[in-house]
Amino acid sequence: MNCKQAQQLFDAYIDGELSQALATELGAHRVRCNECRRALALLEVSGHILASGDDSASLSDGFEDRLLACVEKEASFGNRFRRVLYVAMPLAAAAVVALAFLGVFDRSQGHVLGEKQELVIDEADLDPILRALDMDDAGDELPGADAQAIELDQWGQRMQKNLQSFQDLTIYQWLDVLEKAKDTSGIEDHYPGADPLAEPEPAAEPPSRNTGNGGV
Amino acid sequence: MVATVSREYERQLIERARARETAALRELIDLHKDRLFAFIWRMIRHHHDAEEICQDAFLKAFSSLNSFSVDYRFSTWLFTIGYRICLNRLRSRRTGTADIDALALSPANGETPGSVAESREACELRSQVWLAVDRLSPPQRATVLLFYRHEMSCQQVARVLELPVATVKSHLHRARNRLREMLESLSEKDLHEYRSLSGLAG
Predict the structure, then answer these.
(1) CA B188, CA A201: separation in Å to the nearest integer?
(2) Do A41 and B191 lie within an 8 Å CB cutoff?
(3) pLDDT given for residue B112 in this prediction
């Protein structure tokens, strides 16, 4: 056996995987060859040291108790989250349907609100929902609230686009929306006395397009 | 150092842990925490991070207990989770040598040279070996630690590291060669002394 052949067998030799015959032959080579003897010795020593362990670091006191406390905390959060989810999801679904209905209905009617039937939805009422939808230009008031006429067609298109955003909300955003929506006083109060499903009175004259206030 | 509980007992323990029985969870932690921490610490080389990873590994394991198959050993699964977290942590580090514990760079502290096994030369040799391990790549380091320190077979190491057995053997081979190269400067005298006093055949 030469050194090259012997070196190929080092791993198997150290792991005790060589046949008896090969192990004997390698042992004999080891006796004759200083280089291979040293190489094997270094491998054996390093393996022995690694197997002996290294106790220079250990867990701090109380690790188990802290870990179990985390386990308990996660378990209770999971339960609370599930409870909120089962209550919040139906509310969320209802909110989506309501907003979609408002947006689509108005868009399909193509109505604009004239001066007298001013859209008085305060942004403050819908503020949490709008923020959740991340409407970039949701300013202090709904776009066009001050305008003489609002093009609900464009507003409805935005609503429809933002409905997609509803679906993309993370669950944490949903919970935030619904938490605040619970406190929101009735939006319907701001539709002046009218059933949103009812047809609005026709405008006296064609409204002028006004995009001066940021536009819808 | 292998798990000392039988497979059947471990299965029962896991069933109870799935039901969130605190005693079962505590026992699982107790059985595996020291070995897991030793492995993670040697991989990460930072005490605080290692504890954090150890905790995260247990939390992930407990939160996924329902998907754990009792056909496998819990320790294998736990080590796999710990290893994955270690790899993520190592990748997020900018430099490879950042945040290494100073403790790791010193020989066994507080030991008084008495018996030959505790001699200065032996301590020095141990330090050199562990420093050499620190310089291995993460997969090689993990292979060496699991194979030698945790007495896992190549098949078990392959399961933990989620690698083919042949790759594990290749890592082991390369790691051994690297360790041998790093210890090349060791004197014959020290080498011979250590071998003879450690009872290594020669």
Answers:
(1) 104
(2) yes
(3) 38
Looking at the complex, report in whole angstroms how far the Cα of residue B137 sits from the nearest Cα belonging to chain A: 16
Assigned architecture for domain B1-101: Orthogonal Bundle (1.10)
- The residue with tokens 């939808």 is A133
Query: Which amino acid is present at B68?
Result: F
**Highest mean pLDDT range out of A75-79, A110-114, A130-134?**
A75-79
CA-based nearest distance A34→chain B, Å: 11
At B19-33, the pLDDT tens digits run 989 999 999 999 999
Is A182:A141 a contact under the CB 8 Å cutoff? no
pLDDT in tens, A176-199: 666 665 555 444 444 444 444 445
pLDDT at residue B195, as a whole number: 80
Q: Which residues of B touch A11 (CB under 8 A)?
A: 169, 172-173, 176
Query: Which residues pair with residue A112 across a beta bridge?
Result: A151
pLDDT at A144 over 90: no
What are the extents of the domains in chain B? 1-101, 106-202
Per-residue model confidence (pLDDT) at position B107: 40
For an interface test with A, which of B22, B46, B55, B146 has the most A Cβ atoms less than 10 Å from its Cβ?
A: B55
- Fold exhibited by the domain B106-202: Arc Repressor Mutant, subunit A (1.10.10)
Q: Is A122 exposed, middle or buried (0-12, 13-18, 19+ CB in 10 A)?
A: middle
Inter-chain contact A71–B62, Cβ cutoff 8 Å?
yes
Q: Do A59 and B183 touch (CB under 8 A)?
A: no
